[in-house]
Write a structure and sequence with these properties.
mainly alpha
């Protein structure tokens, strides 16, 4: 794991060619990828200088790692490592606590930076290509290739038209949640169970803690 981490790019510009999680998961067991993220989350815990009660708790790390992979399948391992380091340095704002919600917020800000770089790079490539005076056939092939590239990384370019721009902004908010409704509902319930059964500061079980399966049954009986 340490060798893998050291081999990853340290700059966004150099990470764009890295394979996304959804492709890696076809070749590597998902538990191995989660283990890698868990190690990086432990490193993040050690990097930030805040009260340990407000830092990532040990019992949260596995859940956060799994959730990040579900939410950001089109990003690559380097994206997470770079994001964690930038977040720990305060590049996404002052650090008062670190938990799953904060890290997700970092990732959204990080991806805004990443896709600005992607957009600039694509525009530069397009300009260089057009200066070669391509034929219509060459242009068609180029557009098809670039469409596949953008699809592979889950990227939709910004446009000046307000309606399309609004569509792009909506896409950014929903891009990572294109999952079946039952899967999303299950994750929401799991998060709600955590909120109702664990102390948000210490991560320890509350006095009224119940098993998740029993908690779900109680919600069904109560119609919640």
């Amino acid at each position: 794991m340490a060798e893998l981490a050291s081999s990853l790019p340290s700059k966004i510009e150099d990470s764009l060619e890295q394979p996304p999680i959804c492709m890696i998961a076809k070749q590597v067991p998902l538990r191995n990828i989660e283990a890698f993220l868990a190690i990086e989350l432990n490193k993040l815990h050690d990097l930030v200088n805040i009260d340990d009660r407000l830092n990532i708790q040990g019992n949260q790390i596995s859940f956060i790692a799994s959730s990040l992979l579900d939410m950001f399948p089109n990003e690559n391992l380097a994206d997470f490592v770079i994001c964690f380091k930038q977040g720990a340095l305060g590049q996404f704002g002052d650090i008062y606590r670190v938990d799953g919600a904060v890290i997700c917020g970092w990732m959204e800000q990080y991806l805004d930076k990443k896709y600005q770089i992607v957009e600039t790079k694509l525009k530069e490539e397009r300009k260089d290509f057009e200066e070669t005076n391509p034929t219509e056939a060459d242009l068609k092939l180029y557009n098809e290739r670039m469409a596949k590239v953008m699809e592979s990384i889950g990227y939709i370019p910004k446009v000046d038209d307000n309606a399309k721009n609004n569509e792009y902004e909506r896409f950014k908010l929903t891009r990572t949640w294109q999952q079946p409704a039952d899967v999303i509902k299950a994750k929401e319930l799991h998060i709600q169970w955590i909120k109702e059964n664990f102390n948000p500061i210490t991560g320890k079980k509350l006095p009224e803690w119940v098993e998740e399966a029993d908690w779900l049954k109680l919600r069904e009986i109560g119609g919640g």
